[in-house]
Each structure stands twice: as structure tokens, then as C-alpha cells.
Specification:
It catalyses: N(6)-[(R)-lipoyl]-L-lysyl-[protein] + 3-methyl-2-oxobutanoate + H(+) = N(6)-[(R)-S(8)-2-methylpropanoyldihydrolipoyl]-L-lysyl-[protein] + CO2. It is an enzyme of class 1 (oxidoreductase). InterPro entries: Alpha-ketoacid_DH_E1_comp (IPR050771), DH_E1 (IPR001017), THDP-binding (IPR029061). It holds the Pfam family E1_dh. Its cofactor is thiamine diphosphate. The protein is an alpha/beta fold. It has 3 domains: 45 residues, no CATH class; 280 residues, Thiamin diphosphate (ThDP)-binding fold, Pyr/PP domains (Rossmann fold), CATH 3.40.50.970; 51 residues, no CATH class. The protein contains 14 helices and 8 strands. The strands form 2 sheets. It has a 6-stranded parallel β-sheet, sandwiched between helices. Strands 5-6 form a two-stranded antiparallel sheet. Strand 5 and strand 6 form a beta hairpin. Helix 3 packs across helix 9. The protein is globular. The N and C termini lie far apart (71 Å).
């Protein structure tokens, strides 16, 4: 009985102890610490996922733009809807990125993958900033060091996109744990959550599992947003997993989970807002949202998706249901939008994009010195030798190395060479 008395002292572990004498009042639960709330059974029955119903998908609008629950409504003003629509008008999964970003606190740190241009736009990233990164010109905050579409903004609290698939997930989990400590130590400051985006293909990476597990065990306020658009480059979901999507994995890690219709921006906003509230409950906890969508475009400019899917399938999704069409139907029903406004918006956006393209293309490249900056606090002797060697080569072969397109030309290397170590 002494053992029983000692075990009953461990109430913070939240499990009941089975009577050691096996009496009539025994609590029929497992003592094993690996499954605290499991009950004993004498039935031999395997858990078979194929027999269970699939996780339902939350939505507010049907594909015709009609509100399904009049009492719930869309929880969005007409003015907000118009702004959201203007940010969405392009091609892809805009309802997910624009909708979720609009429901977050502007100071919540975000860790994107590479399909979240809508997140940047919603937070105020300008067309000129997009072009600066794409052209790697002198205005690029990344100083020309990254591949295209690797945006980032310290001011907007969005971490720079990484090339490596899924590495942003453990980064977000770690940031969320740091935020949890900050939230506890600074109760007078508005608490924040970390948010990260990824595709269902990235969920096949080990980083996905590591991130969810550490966030769950440390109860970190992190919102994991999965864009399940049906294809990871040339791999359909049928070749990626046999389980019920990505949402089922959240439950396996003990994480509050929801599946949402990603083509319904109002459902995305409502779900994200509630996920943020949950993430800050009881000191913090992770939340997983699986946003369902369809990738109507090719994976990249080098991808021909018609090699692994039928063109009619893509065209059907374009015509039948997408986030832009659904929101537009809702706005037209409320007399907020019409064909003339649509034509005017798309014409103006095209002009704005082309003008920003023209400005970005004409600007010079960043200074050559940035190839050596930000490695060490002071220039090392080895770096100094490398800088001098580069300068000598460029000076010796001016026709092969045209540095006139770089701001400051070779003078920027002299700036470093003259800098004290």
C-alpha cells in the first residue's frame, strides 16, 4: 500500500491509479506512463483507420458564395472583404495566405514556405519590395544573396523564406517556445504566437514531425498551417500518404487540430482567429490547421503539371471553385462588386505590377562587398586576402567581369579593404 500511496501523490501527471488488489472498485486504467488514459480491455481489436469517418472540413460559404450558417455569418465587414479581394486577385491559394494573415496580430512572427506572397501583401509588403528581391537589386534587403521568391521582412515580422523544404517548421516551434517564455516574463505586453506555413509535401519531411512533437511536449504557442493543395511538385497525395490527410497527424501528436476549406476565405479567417486564441490558452499550446485547396498552376516555371495530371482536371477546378470566385460571388450578391469593377481592378493591378517591374529592373545590383559582409564582426586576414584576390581578378579581366551594374563598382571592395580588422 505504500507504493499506492506514493503514486497517488503524483496528481500533476493527471492519471488515475488502478487498485493493486484488483478489487471491485478498481479504476480500469493503465499504469503505464506512455499511455496515461488508456483503459484495459479483453477485446482484441486493431485500430483500423479505414473504418473511421474522415475528418470533416469546416466552411462558412458554399461554392456559390452563400452563407451556410446565418447566425454565425462571415464575421467580416464589407470594407474588409473588398480589401481582402484586392489582395487576392492573382492565381493560387490566396484564400489561405491572405485570409490567415488578416486574422493574426501584425507582430506575430511568421515563417513562410514559398507560396505565401499573400501573407506579405496582407502585412504591407509592397510591389517594389517584391521586385527588389526578385531582381536582386540594390533595394533588396537580402542584399542579393537569395534565390528569387525568398522574401523576408524584419519590419513586418516575417522571417526570410528558406530554400530547404520544411526547415521553417522547427524554427517556428523554437520561436514559439521563446515567445512562451517572453509571454510569461512580460505579462503587461500583448502575448504573441508563432505561425508557420507548409505544404502537404513538406509534411513528409522529418522536420515536420520534429516540429510538431517539440511544440506539443513544450506546449509552445505555435500555429501550423498546412496548405494541402493535392500535389507536391509531381507527386499526388495518393502517393504521399494513406492516412486521412495531414490533420490526422496533429491528433497523433496531441495537438488541437482543424480541417478547413481553404477556398473559403471567411472560414480561413474564423479558424485562424480561433486557433490564435487557443494557442494562447493556459500558458500556450500548438494548433494545427489543414487548409484544403487545389494547385491550379504548375509547381514552378520548370514544371509541366500536365505530365502527371489531366488538363481537364485543372480547368474544372479553375471554373468550378476557387477562393477568388467564391468571394466574388458573395460580394456580387451584396452589390459590392460587378464586372466593371473587376475589369478596372485587374487593369490597374496589371499596370502597377508592370510599373514596379520596370523600376526594379532598372536599379543596380547590390554592392559587391555584400558577398563578404555579415560573416564576422571584423574582417579577418583570410577574408581580406579573398577580397584582394577578387579585386585583382576583376581588374585583370574587365571584359569578362562587368562590375558597372553593381552599386559602387570595385570601390565597395576598397571600402572593406580599408576597414580596420
Amino acid at each position: 500500500m505504500l507504493l499506492r500511496h506514493q503514486l497517488q501523490k503524483s496528481e500533476p501527471l493527471n492519471y488515475h491509479v488502478q487498485s493493486l488488489d484488483g478489487g471491485a472498485n478498481a479504476d480500469n486504467r493503465v499504469l503505464f506512463p506512455g499511455a496515461l488514459n488508456s483503459e484495459f480491455t479483453n477485446n482484441l481489436e486493431f485500430l483500423r483507420p479505414s473504418r473511421n469517418k474522415a475528418i470533416s472540413t469546416f466552411r462558412i460559404l458554399d461554392q456559390y458564395g452563400h452563407v451556410l450558417d446565418k447566425e454565425r455569418g462571415v464575421d467580416t465587414t464589407d470594407e474588409e472583404a473588398l480589401v481582402l479581394y484586392q489582395h487576392m486577385v492573382s492565381t493560387g491559394e490566396e484564400g489561405i495566405s491572405v485570409g490567415s494573415a488578416s486574422a493574426l496580430n501584425p507582430t506575430d512572427p511568421i515563417f513562410c514556405q514559398y507560396r505565401e506572397a499573400g501573407v506579405f501583401m496582407q502585412r504591407g509588403f509592397t510591389l517594389d519590395q517584391f521586385m527588389a528581391q526578385l531582381f536582386s537589386n540594390t533595394d533588396d534587403t537580402g542584399r542579393g544573396r537569395n534565390m528569387p521568391v525568398h522574401y523576408g521582412s524584419r519590419e513586418l515580422h516575417i522571417r526570410t523564406v528558406s530554400s530547404t523544404l520544411a526547415t521553417q517548421l522547427p524554427h517556428a516551434a523554437g520561436a514559439a517556445y521563446a515567445l512562451k517564455l517572453q509571454n510569461q516574463q512580460n505579462p503587461d505586453v500583448e502575448p504573441r504566437v508563432a505561425v508557420t506555413y507548409f505544404g502537404e509535401g513538406a509534411a513528409s519531411e522529418g522536420d515536420f514531425h520534429a516540429a510538431l512533437n517539440i511544440a506539443a511536449t513544450r506546449q509552445a504557442p505555435c500555429i501550423f498551417i498546412c496548405r494541402n493543395n493535392g500535389y507536391a511538385i509531381s507527386t499526388p497525395t495518393s502517393d504521399q500518404y494513406r492516412g486521412d490527410g495531414i490533420a490526422s497527424r496533429g491528433a497523433g501528436y496531441g495537438i488541437d487540430t482543424l480541417r478547413v476549406d481553404g477556398n473559403d476565405i471567411f472560414a480561413v479567417r474564423t479558424a485562424t482567429r480561433e486557433a490564435r486564441r487557443l494557442a494562447l490558452t493556459d500558458g500556450g499550446k500548438p494548433v494545427l490547421i489543414e487548409m484544403m485547396a487545389y494547385r491550379v498552376g504548375h509547381h514552378s516555371t520548370s514544371d509541366d503539371s500536365y505530365a502527371y495530371r489531366q488538363k481537364v482536371e485543372v480547368e474544372d477546378w479553375k471554373r468550378r471553385d476557387n477562393p477568388i470566385t467564391r468571394l466574388r460571388k458573395w460580394m456580387e450578391e451584396r452589390d459590392l462588386w460587378n464586372e466593371d469593377k473587376e475589369r478596372e481592378l485587374r487593369s490597374q493591378l496589371r499596370k502597377d505590377v508592370l510599373a514596379a517591374f520596370d523600376r526594379g529592373e532598372k536599379k543596380k545590383k547590390p554592392k559587391i562587398r555584400h558577398a563578404f559582409d555579415d560573416v564576422w564582426e571584423n574582417i579577418t586576414d583570410e577574408q581580406r586576402a579573398h577580397i584582394q584576390e577578387l579585386k585583382d581578378i576583376v581588374t585583370r579581366y574587365p571584359k569578362e567581369y562587368d562590375v558597372s551594374q553593381y552599386e559602387g563598382g570595385l570601390d565597395s571592395l576598397d571600402e572593406l579593404l580599408q576597414k580596420k580588422g
